[in-house]
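Q: I'm a student working through a structural biology exercise. My instructor gave each of us a protein and asked us to get a predicted structure, then write a short paragraph describing it. Mine is ABC transporter domain-containing protein. I'm not confident about reading structure output yet, so if you can add a plain explanation after the tokens, that would really help. Here is the sequence I was given:
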Amino acid sequence: MRDSEEPNVNMLELTNIHYSVHKKCIFKGATTSLKNGECVAITGDNGSGKSTLLKIIAGLMVPNKGNVKIDSRKILAMSRNRRLSHCVLHQ
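A: Happy to help. First, here is the predicted structure for ABC transporter domain-containing protein. I'll explain a few features afterward.
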């Protein structure tokens, strides 16, 4: 059984995510977690950082600070193919 299949284990963890582009702060200290079976919606205005957050979760973009973990494993320690298997981003 994978860790994320246990009901009280965090499937996804974002810890103290900071991300800036051209001196513009997009995220500062974003922290949250999801357990197996939980569902979340990411909402916001155009340009508010929704797609950026999903790309950081997928490991396609690297935050300036902080960690993303899936099944208690740092996303950036995974192979690119493994990272991409966890996240689909539709525009």
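A: Here are two points you could use in your paragraph. The mean pLDDT is 85. The chain has one domain: 3-84. It's a good idea to check both against the output above yourself.
Q: Great, thank you!
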